[in-house]
Design brief:
The protein is of the alpha/beta class. It is about 30% helix and about 15% strand. The protein starts with a helix and ends in a 6-residue tail after the last helix. The structure holds S-adenosylmethionine (SAM).
């Protein structure tokens, strides 16, 4: 569902950076690898490597696609002795997972070829409203997000890391940095055109799944926020 949402937001594109010359691509935190496999299928001449703590359930059977099981915040032993460099590194939707963004982005820079790209599509942790301030406690959803941010911070994760992304990239000596923002409404009746209605439907479904999964999850990498941090065990 998230993959479909990103496809619509990016007008059907898998990548926003120029990709005709890309021969090697590293996807950090590839998750189910639906996106990784879609890129590998679209660019059959490109060597694509997906990395995740948990390997994907499907290997997709593509000759140019391999997976590595590793924690990307640990030293990158999976890179090999010759210190491989890539044409593109992608980090999608890891805002709630990474403790040390400056070090990760610096490491990406060190493993990119000169003139290569990094792409970091991500979400903002929070819901925003034309009528509520996001810190307004009268909205249960806003309160939930406040708990979420506090929960991730107990894991050393900065819920506002996205807002510091540009300066972080500049510090790592990336140049030609650009940032694009998309608004995803939760209420399809608040928008008129078909594209935004579809985005709103997917965003709401995704949000409801996230609320349930995150609130009830226990002992998965960074998502036992409520059961552990708020001590909501056994409810
Ligand atoms: C929200 S999913 C991202 C999905 C994927 N990037 C995509 O675009 O479809 C987050 C993934 O990051 C992985 N992850 C989180 N922290 C990680 C780490 N330190 N090293 C490697 N993978 C990590 C999780 O296992 C999970 O599969």
């Amino acid at each position: 569902m998230q993959h479909q949402l990103w496809r619509i937001l990016l007008n059907g594109q898998l990548l926003t950076v120029p990709h005709s010359q890309i021969t090697s691509l590293l996807h950090l935190g590839c998750g189910s690898a639906v996106w990784t496999a879609a890129v590998a299928a679209k660019l059959p001449e490109t060597v694509v490597v997906g990395v995740d703590i948990t390997p994907p359930a499907n290997d997709f059977g593509l000759d140019n696609l391999t997976f590595v099981t590793a924690d990307i915040e640990d030293p990158w032993s999976f890179i090999g002795e010759q210190r491989e460099r890539y044409d593109l590194i992608s980090i999608r939707v890891l805002v709630s997972a990474i403790r040390d963004w400056p070090s990760l982005i610096q490491r990406c820079f060190d493993h990119l070829k000169p003139g290569a790209w990094i792409e970091i599509p991500d979400v903002t942790i929070g819901t925003f409203s034309d009528t509520f301030d996001w810190q307004d406690e009268s909205s249960p959803l806003m309160r939930w997000y406040q708990c979420y941010r506090r929960g991730v911070s107990t894991y050393g994760i900065d819920g506002f890391a996205n807002q510091k992304r540009t300066s972080c990239l500049a510090t790592a000596q990336f140049t030609r940095i650009s940032e694009e923002f998309f608004t995803c409404y939760l209420d399809e009746d608040a928008v008129t055109d078909i594209r935004h209605k579809e985005i709103a439907q997917l965003t709401r479904q995704n949000m409801l799944g996230l609320l349930d999964a995150v609130t009830t999850a226990c002992d998965t990498y960074a998502f036992d926020l409520f059961s552990c941090w708020l001590q909501w065990r056994g409810m």
